[in-house]
Design goal:
Elements lengths: L1 H5 L13 E2 L7 E3 L6 H12 L7 H26 L2 E2 L8 E4 L5 E6 L4 E2 L10 H19 L3 H18 L12 H8 L15 E3 L10 E3 L18 H14 L1
Parallel strand pairs: 1-5
Antiparallel strand pairs: 2-4, 3-6, 4-5, 7-8
Helix pairs in contact: 3-4, 3-5, 4-5, 5-6
Length: about 250
Amino acid sequence: MTQALSRLYIGPLAGLTPPRVAPAPGPDALPARLLLDPAYLEALFARFGARYGHGDRRAVASLWSKWHFSALAAHALAANLLLERDLPLGLDDLQLVQSADGQTTGLALRHAGRPLGELGGLSRFTTLLDAHLTPLVEALASASGASPKVFWSNAGNYFEYFAGALSHHPMAAPDVGEPARALMASRTLADGRRNPLFRPVRYVTPDAPDAPSRIRRLCCIRYLIDELGYCANCPLECRRAGKAAKEAV
C-alpha cells in the first residue's frame, strides 16, 4: 500500500510531497502530539510569528493552522476518497516534518493506513475529526485566544477545496467527492454531535465581475496583521466590497 499512496501524487496533488511511511519516522520528524503541549505551542507561535513581525498572536496561530490543515486535508482526503483508506492521522500516531520556522511541510506515517471497510457515510472521517482536528483545535484556541470557530473554518476551507480538486484526479471515480460533500452538508456527525465542518464555504453569483464567487463562511482573521489584509475569499472583504459597489451606483 505504500506504493499505492505514492501513486496518488499526480494531477491536482502533483505539487505535494507524499507522506513518508516507515515504522521509524526519522530524526527530523517530531510527534504530532507535541501540538497539544502549551509550552510547545508558545515556542511554535514565536518561531512562526517571526515572519509576521511577531504580530497578533491569534492571527499567527490561524495562519500556522492554515498551512497545517492544508497538508492534512490533502493527504487525508486523497487516501480516503481515492484509495478508500483511513490514514493513521491521530495525534498519537502521526509524526510531523517542519520547516525552520515551524511550518508543517510533511507527514510521517507509521503505516499506510487501513481499508475503510465498514466505515461508511460520515463515519469514514472519524479519525481525521476526532483523533486530530478536535483536540488540536481545542489546543490552538486555548493557547492563542482565538475562537475555535476560526480554526474549524480554516480546516473546513481546505477540506472543501481538496474534496473538489480530487474530482479532477486521474484516479478519481465518478462522484469521488460525494462522501466529503455529504459530511459538509450535514449539521450533525454520525453520532449526533454538531458538525464543525458544516458548510465551511459558500458559492455566490457576485454583483461585481471581479468579486470572488467562493467565499469562506468565517474569516481567518489574518487581517489582524496589518501587512496582510484580507484573503481573496474572506467573507468580511466580500461584504465590504459588495457594499462599496452598491454605494457607487
